[in-house]
Amino acid sequence: EASAEERRFTELIEADSRVEPRDWMPAAYRKTLIRQMSQHAHSEIIGMQPESNWITRAPSLKRKAILMAKVQDEAGHGLYLYSATQTLGITRDEMMDQLIAGKARYSSIFNYPTPTWADMGAIGWLVDGAAICNQVPLCRASYAPYGRAMVRICKEESFHQRQGFEILLELMHGTDAQKRMAQDAVDRWYWPSLMMFGPPDDDSPNSAQSMAWKIKRFSNDELRQRFVSMLVPQAEVLGVTLPDPDLRWNEERGEYDLGEIDWTEFHEVLAGRGPCNALRLQRRRDAHEEGRWVREAAAAYAKRVAERETE
Ligand code: FAQ
């Protein structure tokens, strides 16, 4: 027999209304939100690294200013999402400790290297493109602080996506070497960007419950499919080839057929054995250590101000 609180929660979800932090919610709903939202926040923070790798080497002052602004946006998204997650009763310190200890997940995509400038284009076009596809439906997530965070974040991601597209467009109008560099980056980022949507539907343990709770609105495969449909015409404009020989329009399904995704690679990256997992985690640990004096100084100052007020 459901309690009155439980019935009210179920009605709220059924009516497509929203859950606020002070509302009653099932413990499992709270837990899955903390899981997904903290992972999302960690992704933004770790996601700063592949691009910050190029800030000192951007090919012009203008490109450098744009890239710095983008990486700063990612920091902002991370902090914004940590705050939204804190409304569920976990502290920022707990989340940070989990990340530093290597116990927290963050998106698989940020464990790949960025050896060339064209990677900045491919990340913007493919990684931010995938992020938008995944996150636009999350603007309607049943947990209100998450949905509200997504509205603002998606606006910034769409600017990020266009700046990536524009980097690739310029390279594709350049020399043969620049065209090869752009195509090579697309070849390396295409498959990992498809993996961002998560495992296939029949191997996605969290999907059914998250969809019933209206946190997720579409399945992993549905969003992956939508992403590819968005990419195909854009790839034509760019003049790049998507590196999937089996990619073709299926008239009957009204969708593209995709080649086989290498799920072994996906699981290896999730297990911590991707090309840059160790590097990303070490960099985060070092940054945390290097920032210790700032946190301590801020805490000491806050304490002194509080003492002065009670004097
Ligand atoms: N990487 O049962 P499901 C960005 C895990 S965009 C790592 O399907 P769910 C912007 C999953 O957590 C990137 N782990 O799970 C940016 C679960 O593990 P758990 C961040 C993955 O939650 C751009 C297990 O596999 N975006 O940062 C991945 O229903 C450029 C089973 O999976 C978000 O986080 C993966 N790719 O669906 C920043 C979006 N896929 O927790 C900088 C919000 C799955 O049981 C530069 N999140 N796993 O141990 C979501 O929409 C969902 O959480 C999914 C996964 C779709 C990612």
Automatic annotation (TrEMBL):
Its EC number is 1.14.13.149. The keyword Chaperone does not apply. GO terms for cellular component: cytosol. Keywords: Oxidoreductase. InterPro entries: Aromatic_CoA_ox/epox, Ferritin-like, Ferritin-like_SF, PaaA, PaaA_PaaC. The keyword ATP-binding does not apply. GO terms for biological process: phenylacetate catabolic process. It comes from the Bacteria. One of its GO terms (molecular function) is phenylacetyl-CoA 1,2-epoxidase activity. PANTHER family: 1,2-PHENYLACETYL-COA EPOXIDASE, SUBUNIT A, PHENYLACETIC ACID DEGRADATION PROTEIN PAA. This is 1,2-phenylacetyl-CoA epoxidase subunit A. It comes from Leifsonia tongyongensis.
